[in-house]
Amino acid sequence: MLRTQKRGMGYIAVVVDDYDRAIEYYTDKLGFTLVEDTPQPGKRWVVVTPNPLSDCHILLARASNERQKDFIGDQCGGRVFLFLQTDDFWRDYNAMKEKGVHFCEEPRQEEYGTVVVFEDIYGNRWDLYQNN
């Protein structure tokens, strides 16, 4: 008998300095949905997503020690860390720009689609992109 498995990314942790500040940025500036905010001993389980129907979410993880604080905003050594795919590049680009999201460059056309690099509130670099 052939068994099939469904595997995928469930959560990606982004280290933040403050839960409420991060929630505000991701929901107000990027248009994400707050999926969960559950208190736990000494921390909170805070989950946001660009699409509630997606299986992949971002866990906003508050730094709990100095070593973790050092990685806030630099989780990928200055490279693009996360990739936000959209079905309407210009709609999302213009909405984010209007809300004060910092873009590192002008949008550009690549062979795979339209893309622009932006930084989140902490300096993590993202691609906003739409495939052709």
From TrEMBL:
**What residues form the membrane-spanning segments?**
none
The superkingdom of the source organism is: Bacteria
InterPro entries from the UniProt entry: Glyas_Bleomycin-R_OHBP_Dase (IPR029068), Glyas_Fos-R_dOase_dom (IPR004360), VOC_core (IPR037523)
Q: Where is the VOC domain?
A: 8-131
Q: Which PANTHER family match?
A: GLYOXALASE/BLEOMYCIN RESISTANCE PROTEIN/DIOXYGENASE, GLYOXALASE_BLEOMYCIN RESISTANCE PROTEIN_DIOXYGENASE
Q: What is this protein called?
A: VOC domain-containing protein
Where does this protein come from, organism-wise?
Answer: Hafnia psychrotolerans
